[in-house]
Amino acid sequence: MRHxxxxxxxxxxxxxxLLAASASAVSLKLPAWVAIYSGSPAADIFFDVARGPGxxxxxxxxTRATEEVSTLLLGKYKANGTVLWKxxxxxxxVTGSAGAAVRVNKWGNVLIxxxxxxxxxxxxTGRDIVVLKYSPAGKLLWATRYGGPAGKDDxxxxxxIDAEGTAYVVGASTGTGxxxxxxxxxxxxxxxxxxxxxxAGPGRYDYPTGIALDSDLNSYVTGESRGAGGTxxxxxxxxxxxxxxxxxxxxxxxxxxxxxxADIVVxxxxxxxxxxxxxxxxxxxxxxxxxxxxxxxxxxxKRSIGHADLFNQDETGSKLAVDDAGNAYVAxxxxxxxxxxxxxxxxxxVPYGGGLDWVGMxxxxxxxxxxxxxxxxxxxxxxxxxxxxADRTVGGSDIFVCSVEPDRTPRWVSAQAGNAGxxxxxxxxxxxxxxxxxxxxxxxxxxxxxxxxxxxxx
Length: 458
Known about the structure:
By secondary structure, this protein is mainly beta. The chain has a single domain (about 10-40, about 135-455), classed as 7 Propeller (Methylamine Dehydrogenase, Chain H). The chain has strands at about 10-15, 20-25, 35, 45-50, 55-65, 70-80, 85-90, 95-105, 110-115, 125-135, 140-145, 155-160, 165-175, 180-185, 195-200, 205-215, 220-225, 230-240, 245-250, 260-265, 275-280, 285-295, 300-310, 315-320, 330-335, 345-350, 360-365, 370-380, 385-390, 395-405, 410-415, 425-430, 435-445, 450-455. The strands form 8 sheets. It has a 6-stranded antiparallel beta sheet, with no helix packed on it.
C-alpha cells in the first residue's frame, strides 16, 4: 500500500449562478488498518459491506481464477481488522458464482444476494440469482436459486431485508419475448421463495438498480426502462408485501427523453416520500444532469425535484443518501463537454422541497486528473462520506474516500492504492460511530487485483 504526502486536494464549488475554484491542502487520512484477500491470479473484488452485531463487518464479492471461472467470496472481520473467517460458495454442477450485496439481520445471520453461472458472453444460459444465508459462525444455512422464465441471464442488483430477516432481492432477469425485465423476489427467513414479481416495460430493456422498504414492508424499486422510440424512463414500482403491484410510474423529468433511476430511499414521518437519485436530460439539445426526485409513497405522484447542471456538462447520479430532515445527497460524476472529456467526482445536495443547495466536485492534484464517486454514506452530524477512485498526476488511480461537511467543505481525504498503480477502487462503504469501513479492490505486483477492506477513523 502506498501513501503520499502532502496531498493536494482540489475542490470546485458550483452554485446556481456562480463557479469558484480553489486548491488547498486537506487533511490526509491514512487507514487505521487494511486487510487484503488474494486468492486468485485474475481478480478478487469486494463489492459490498455490512456491519453485524458485536461490531463485526461482512464483505462480499468474487474471486476469479479466470474471467469465466469465478467463486463467490464472503469474509467476516472484527472492527480492528482481525479476520474471523472467510467462505467461498459454488453450486454443484454450475460453473461460476459471485456475490453482489450483503445484509445482516438482528440475530447476526448474513444474507447475500449473488449469482451462479457464467455471464452471457461465455454461456448460452447465463446466470441465475442466488440468495444465501450464513450463520454468524460462517455455516451455510440455505441457498435459494431463481432462474427467469426464458432460462437465460438473471443477476441481482440490490437487496433489502426486514426486521424478521426476510430478504427482498431485485435483479435483471430475461423474460420470454420481453427482453430484460425487473425481477423482485421475496425470500423468507427459512429460505423459501415466497413470490417473484416481474415487470416488463414497453421496450425490451428494463434494468432495476435499487430497492427500499417502508415500515409496512412494501417494496419500492427503481431503474431504467426503454420505451417506444428509444425513450428511457425511471420506471418505479411499489409492490405490496404479498407481491402485488400497488402502483407503477414511468418517471420522466427535464426536457429530454432520458431519465434513469440509480438508487432509491424511502423516508417516513414529516419528510415522507420516495427519493430517487439518478440522471435526466435537460436543455436544448438535452444533456444529462444529476437529479434527485421525490414522489409520493401513496401514488408515485411527483412532489419535488432538484438537479445539478455544470454548464452543459453531462452529470450522472449513482448513489443516494437522505438525512432525517429530508436533505438528499447524491454522488456520481461529471464529464466535461470539451475534449478530452475529463470525468470528475461529484456530490450534490438537494433539500426536501427540491431545488439545489450545492454541488461539489472532488478530484486530486490537477484538473485534468479523472475521478468518480460510486459510494455514499452519512453520519449523525450530517457529514457526507463518498468513495470511488481518483487519478494522481503520478502513479495512476487511487482508492478515493472523502469526508465533506453538510455545507460541502471538505473535512479530510483518504487516497490509497496497491503498488501496481492501476485498478484501485472503492466499491462500497459503511459509516459507523467508530469509523468508515471501505471495500473494493487494489492491484499489486505479483498477485494482480486483490479484494480490500479498510477502516478510516472519522
